[in-house]
């Protein structure tokens, strides 16, 4: 059974349980399998040789998640070809594609963790009570080492965008 962590995160001040390990900068980035679309799964190795900023959101159809994804879409334009920004959520690939089209988000790659919650469990962000992934940010260097990790303590708050972007820029 996967490790459960309680007392470190909340949703609207109510405690939630996160499943999986609590990662830190310096750890090797765990592998995962997520859906890029209905027929194509991808894993960490599909982004080999790139600096990866992984923005995790519970659902693109909520205000903070929408703002977070739009913000990183804007930042992607300034970071160059060595960087890829991935947004992981439990939304179905159809919903992600619809949302991106409506929002004009073209620089961020959306990935769905809905099939197996592989990402959520590997990165310690799967919320037991909701089967959603907890808002968090991971920056992974070209050698697949974590260089920046931000687990939010309250699901409805924004991450520290500047720190995450600066962590990516420090690797360029």
TrEMBL record:
One of its GO terms (molecular function) is peroxidase activity. It catalyses: a hydroperoxide + [thioredoxin]-dithiol = an alcohol + [thioredoxin]-disulfide + H2O. The keyword Disulfide bond applies. Coiled coil: none annotated. Residues 23-172 form the Thioredoxin domain. Keywords: Antioxidant, Disulfide bond, Oxidoreductase, Peroxidase, Redox-active center. Pfam families: Redoxin. Belongs to the peroxiredoxin family. Tpx subfamily. Homodimer. This is Thiol peroxidase. The lineage of its organism: Bacteria, Bacillati, Bacillota, Bacilli, Bacillales.
């Amino acid at each position: 059974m996967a490790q459960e962590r309680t007392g470190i995160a909340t949703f609207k001040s109510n405690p939630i349980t996160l499943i999986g390990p609590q990662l830190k900068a310096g750890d090797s980035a765990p592998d995962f399998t997520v859906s890029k679309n209905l027929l194509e799964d991808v894993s960490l190795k599909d982004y080999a040789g790139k600096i990866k900023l992984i923005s995790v959101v519970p659902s693109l159809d909520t205000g903070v998640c929408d703002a977070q994804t739009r913000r990183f879409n804007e930042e992607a334009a300034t970071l160059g070809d060595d960087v890829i920004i991935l947004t992981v959520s439990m939304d179905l690939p159809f919903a992600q594609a619809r949302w991106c089209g409506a929002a004009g988000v073209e620089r961020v790659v959306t990935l769905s963790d809905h099939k197996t919650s592989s990402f959520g469990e590997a990165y310690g962000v799967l919320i037991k009570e909701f089967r959603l992934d907890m808002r968090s940010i991971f920056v992974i260097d070209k050698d697949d080492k974590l260089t920046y990790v931000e687990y939010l303590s309250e699901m409805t708050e924004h991450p520290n965008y500047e720190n995450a972007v600066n962590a990516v820029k420090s690797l360029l």
